[in-house]
Write a structure and sequence with these properties.
Distance between the termini: 39 Å
Order of helices and strands: EHEHHEEHEHEHEEEEEHHHHEEEH
Oligomer: single chain
Number of domains: 2
Helix content: 40-55%
CATH topology of the largest domain: L-2-Hydroxyisocaproate Dehydrogenase, Chain A, domain 2
CATH class of the largest domain: Alpha Beta
CATH superfamily of the largest domain: Lactate dehydrogenase/glycoside hydrolase, family 4, C-terminal
Bound molecules: 1,4,5,6-tetrahydronicotinamide adenine dinucleotide
Strand order of the largest sheet: 3-2-1-4-5-6
Number of helices: 11
Largest sheet: 6 strands, parallel
Strand content: 15-25%
Structural class: alpha/beta
Length: 321
């Protein structure tokens, strides 16, 4: 068995970091595709010239030719415009759907047996479109949102409680938009509920809820917070890292339970839509959706998020995609 072939479509900010992370972790050989001439070639050359220093030995190829993704095991799609300050992810719909259409057609043609991880925004719509055009099995088209949103939530909890982020578990479900649903009830530090620790810290239940709500709100707006600071684009280090966790789970058949944007067939009361839920990720892609009981409040929030995702998909279909 040779090394995995991992192709990245879109060699911009996220694509570049992804290529470097795959190389550093030796997850496979990398093909970095972009429509901008010479840029992906320049980035891969730059990355590979650090291989002696970083001690990795995989092949990295930059290209403007889809033929180079032939036979990929994994394809990661980052192609599409990022947000500018003041824009919502949904404002990117028309432009990025056009791009996704071409990308999906070419992945279908050149890498028909790959597992695809979609990163481009608006995420839930782009995953749906990619699945529709390629006709790939549902478990082999996965969107990245939850791993990043959950990591953001965990970061804020760690800061607030003064503990290492390594010991914080937190999960965000639903769509990758302002309606995403951080699951407060199960946020914990090594198993101890974060809410309990907050109540101990503030000795006041109301204050503890206020602080938690602020972290939930910050999580939902975390992408926008970075966009506002960067001014010229959106987050790229953390989205790349989040996708790497998914790639690793697939390459090493880890069966990790990660919150990912997965196709639902009745789970959580949703049928025929891509929504962020916990799923087991292994060599076959999404191998299982993990259902658990939501309390009424969480169910209402998830339903609200699903409604937003459906709205986005309907808008996309109205635009002719
Ligand atoms: O967690 C998440 N899912 C995300 C998603 C978190 C942050 C940002 N996320 C979205 O990823 C963002 O809103 C964008 O839609 C994508 C890519 O973000 P990035 O920051 O990498 O954008 P860049 O730097 O503009 O890179 C996009 C590249 C750029 O090099 C273009 O030339 C290329 O996409 N591009 C194309 N590649 C291939 N094919 C076509 N048609 C094409 N059009 C543009």
């Amino acid at each position: 068995m040779g090394r995995k072939k991992i192709s990245i479509i879109g060699g911009g900010q996220i694509g570049g970091v992804l290529a470097q992370l795959i190389a550093l972790r030796q997850l496979g050989d990398v093909v970095l595709f972009d429509i901008v001439e010479d840029m992906p070639q320049g980035k891969t050359l730059d990355i590979v010239e650090a291989s002696r220093i970083d001690g990795f030995d995989v092949s990295l190829k930059g290209t403007n030719d889809y033929k180079d993704i032939n036979g990929s095991d994994i394809v990661i799609v980052t192609a599409g415009l990022p947000r500018k300050p003041g824009m919502s992810r949904d404002d990117l719909l028309t432009t990025n759907a056009k791009i996704m259409q071409t990308v999906a057609e070419n992945v279908k043609k050149h890498a028909a047996n790959s597992i695809a991880i979609i990163i481009s925004n608006p995420l839930d719509a782009m995953v749906t479109l990619f699945k529709k055009i390629t006709g790939f099995p549902a478990g082999k088209v996965i969107g990245q949102a939850g791993v990043l949103d959950s990591s953001r939530f965990a970061t804020f909890i760690a800061w607030e409680l003064g503990v290492s982020v390594k010991d914080v578990n937190a999960m965000v479900l639903g769509g990758h938009g302002d309606t995403m649903v951080p699951i407060v009830r199960y946020a914990n530090v090594n198993g101890i509920p974060a809410m309990e620790l907050l109540e101990k810290k503030y000795k006041d239940k109301e204050k503890a809820s206020e602080v938690m709500n602020a972290m939930v709100e910050r999580t939902k707006m975390a992408g926008g917070e970075v966009v506002k600071l960067l001014k010229t684009g959106s987050a790229f280090y953390s989205p790349a890292s989040a996708s790497i966790a998914m790639v690793e789970a697939i390459v090493y058949d880890e069966k990790r339970m990660l919150p990912v944007c997965a196709y639902l067939n009745g789970e959580f009361g949703v049928k025929g839509y891509y929504v962020g839920v916990p799923a087991v990720l292994g060599a076959a892609g999404v191998e299982k959706i993990i259902e658990f009981d939501l309390i009424a409040e969480e169910k209402a929030l998830l339903d609200n998020s699903v409604t937003a995702v459906k709205g986005l998909v309907v808008d996309m279909e109205r635009l002719g995609f």
